[in-house]
UniProtKB/TrEMBL annotation:
Residues 241-328 form the DNA polymerase III delta subunit C-terminal domain. It is an enzyme of class 2 (transferase). It comes from the Bacteria. The keyword Nucleotidyltransferase applies. GO terms for molecular function: DNA-directed DNA polymerase activity. Keywords: DNA replication, DNA-directed DNA polymerase, Nucleotidyltransferase, Transferase. Its EC number is 2.7.7.7. The keyword Lipid metabolism does not apply. It catalyses: DNA(n) + a 2'-deoxyribonucleoside 5'-triphosphate = DNA(n+1) + diphosphate. This is DNA polymerase III subunit delta'.
């Protein structure tokens, strides 16, 4: 897709203004920190900037998207563009050292070198210190892009050596309109924009049979918990765990869970037009008659706590069993 900086400015106008000014003046910083929520386009922008710097047929400052450099950046095969991802739960010192070794060599095809560190907040202390030394002695032909959703987890000494650009979430209404243009129903669009700010990810989720089934499983669990029986733990064993296999899938399930309880609260306070799960109105109204506002807030807090524990790598089965017990006690 032959995107231009002008088109990208509709997504992140301030970020685009800063980067295009630097490109036009040939003053691209040696280190940037792109910070913002998941789905705000940080990695996409980092790769687009790389294409603007390496493109063989750049027009003004826009990459052509068709030359060998652009294509190799798209496919992840450019020898002078390196992307570092967490190895397991963290980015390790050896990964930064390997990067430094690569950069001590002359550029394979030019003097230019470019690297992206995704989820930079997941660097171990040793990895952060190694990177810090790297940032303190920049090569004039090197550009570093650090990406993070958790800027508060980054070392101040690293932040001080980067130019920080903040990526803002796209207004939900704009994203809903874009999804409707792609043929998605308003009801489905309204649900998925609560889970992601990325149009590409939203479309991927909506076309995924796993996601449709996940929504059913979450609603079934909500009904089981509402039935006042003690079958919640059995449901987790028989239905939840076989469907939600990894941390990312469990997080999606917890997000859907949160939408459900937020909708009940919305009904309870008389703002039914704000409900997200429009097709579940009857169930929402039924549960709203049986719970207090205080109970709902307790349940939502329990889900938020479960999400925090998930981020701390608590085992998924243990986490869900504890959550169900907490929700049953508070009902």
């Amino acid at each position: 897709m032959s995107m231009t900086w002008e088109e990208l400015s509709t997504i992140q106008p301030i970020v685009v203004k800063m980067l295009t000014n630097s490109l036009k003046k040939n003053r691209v910083a040696h280190a940037y920190l792109f910070e913002g929520e998941k789905g705000t386009g940080k990695k996409k922008f980092a790769l687009f900037l790389a294409k603007s710097l390496f493109c063989q047929h750049v027009v003004d400052i826009n990459p052509c998207h068709t030359c060998s450099n652009c294509k190799r950046i798209d496919s992840g095969n450019h020898p002078d563009v390196h992307v570092i991802e967490p190895d397991g739960l963290s980015i390790k010192k050896q990964q930064i050292q390997h990067l430094q070794e690569e950069f001590s060599k002359t550029g394979v095809e030019s003097k230019q070198k470019y690297y992206i560190i995704n989820q930079a907040d997941k660097m171990t202390p040793n990895a952060s210190n190694s990177l810090l030394k790297f940032l303190e002695e920049p090569n004039e032909h090197t550009t570093a892009i650090l990406l993070t959703e958790q800027v508060n987890q980054m070392l101040d000494t690293i932040l001080s050596r980067c130019q920080t650009l903040s990526f803002k979430p796209m207004p939900k209404q704009i994203l809903i309109s874009q999804l409707i243009e792609e043929g998605i129903s308003p009801e489905a669009a309204n649900v998925v924009v609560q889970l992601t700010n990325s149009k590409e990810e939203a479309l991927r989720l909506l076309q995924d049979d796993w996601f449709a089934e996940a929504r059913k499983v979450v609603l079934q669990l909500c009904e089981v918990l509402d039935s006042k029986t003690q079958h919640g733990l059995i449901f987790i064993q028989e239905k939840w765990l076989p469907h939600f296999h990894d941390r990312e899938q469990t997080e999606r399930g917890l997000d859907l869970f949160m939408i459900f309880y937020r909708d009940i609260l919305t009904v309870l306070v008389g703002e039914e037009e704000q409900v997200i799960l429009c097709d579940q109105h009857q169930l929402l109204k039924k549960i709203a008659l049986q719970v207090s506002q205080k109970q709902l807030i307790q349940r939502m807090n329990a889900i938020l706590e479960a999400k925090k524990r998930l981020s701390a790598n608590v085992q998924s089965q243990l986490l869900m069993e504890q959550l169900v017990l907490n929700l049953q006690e508070g009902s």
